[in-house]
Amino acid sequence: MVVTEGRRVRWRAPGDLGFLVAIIIAIILIAHIVFVLLDANVGNDIVHTDATWAAWLATWFLDLFTPKSHKLNIFLNYGIATLFYLVVGGILRRILNDL
């Protein structure tokens, strides 16, 4: 990716792209958490699509904790998935930018 600053051209490091992907995944997961906590209409296309994507992205974390409260379950499991993606994205960013 190229960023122009006046006359100078600066190339972005490859790790930045990986971290951007991690941020987008985190936004999808956080949106799902917010939709559940605020009791969003699951019949809405945006809410339904986000729930589908978030469930797929958080597959490994879905039953990590099993509290009785559905909202707490979503908050904990999807929240940990969000942290996982951000940490892994940050590590990949550092590794790829140091190459």
**Subunit arrangement of the protein:** single chain
Between the first and last Cα atoms, what is the distance in angstroms?
Answer: 17 Å
Shape, per Cα inertia axes:
elongated
Tally of individual helices: 3
- What structural category arises from helix and sheet content? mainly alpha
Based on DSSP secondary structure assignment, what is the total number of beta strands?
2
User: What's the alpha carbon Rg, rounded to whole Å?
Assistant: 17 Å
Mean pLDDT: 91
Strand content: 5-15%
Tell me the strand order in the biggest sheet. Answer: 1-2
Largest sheet, strands/sense/barrel? 2 strands, antiparallel
Order of H and E elements: EEHHH
The residue fraction in helices comes out at 55-70%
Low-confidence stretches: none
When the domains are counted, the total is 1
Overview of the structural elements:
This protein is mainly α and 99 residues long. The chain has one domain (14-98). Helices cover 67% and strands 8% of the residues. The chain has helices at residues 14-37, 45-57, 70-98; strands at 2-5, 8-11. A two-stranded antiparallel sheet has the order 1-2. A hairpin with a 2-residue loop joins β1 (2-5) and β2. α1 crosses α2 and α1 packs antiparallel against α3 (70-98). The mean pLDDT is 91.
